Amino acid sequence: MTRKRIQRVIITILIWLTCTLLLSSNGMHTTRAAPNAPDYSGSLSPDDIYVDTERAALIISGLGGVEPPSSTWYGPDGYQITAGCIGGQQIRKYIYYGGSLSVVIDYFYIRDCNRDPGQYRVTVGNSIDISFAINPQIHYVYIPIIQR
After folding, report:
1. Is there a smaller number of Cβ atoms within 10 Å at the N or the C end of the chain?
2. What is the largest CA-CA distance in the chain?
3. Distance separating alpha carbons of residues 28 and 26, to the nearest angstrom
4. Alpha-carbon distance 133 to 48, whole Å?
5. Got the DSSP string for 90-140?
6. What tens-digit pLDDT sequence spans the chain (148 residues)?
7. CATH for 41-135?
8. Domain map (residue ranges) of the chain
């Protein structure tokens, strides 16, 4: 074979491969992230949590209209615990913006559930893993100073 003929064969093969990739249905698919790994983030409010705090709110944003998996809460001993303790408590709130799910708020009740002070943790899928502390309520006693 001549050099020109080899070049034509290579060019023909490259053109054929390019057309095949462009026209094949597998080459046109877009991939989606796994349900447990979307691009969302979370923050906990309030910053300082005490045993007499009503509830903590995990604010999950960046959802892009997709509902995140349920949050999982862990106590100081590392075991999973429930977010609420009394029937009828709202555990999850959905906020829509422009018809699309924008923010999800998961509530963790503290005062009504008599949570013990200590280090707690909340996870949501593979994207959120937040540790927080429930602090004991400290009451200060002020003693007046009497000067002579």
Report:
1. C
2. 115
3. 5
4. 8
5. --EEEEEETTEEEEEEEEEE-TTTTPPSEEEEEEETTTEEEEEEEEPP---
6. 677 777 777 777 767 666 565 555 443 333 334 444 457 899 999 989 999 999 999 999 988 888 999 999 999 999 999 999 988 788 999 999 888 889 999 999 999 999 999 999 999 988 899 999 999 977 677 777 777 7
7. 2.60.40
8. 1-28, 41-135
Tokens, residue 46 = 């309030």
Tokens of 12: 């023909």
Quick one: DSSP state of residue 52? T
Structure tokens at 132: 């927080």
Phi-psi label, residue 98: left if phi above 0, alpha if psi -120 to 50, beta otherwise = left
- Measured distance CA(57)–CA(44) in Å, rounded: 6
Q: How far apart are CA 83 and CA 34, in angstroms?
A: 25
Spatial CA neighbour of 41 closest among 68, 65, 20? 68
Q: Encoding tokens for residue 110?
A: 């503290």
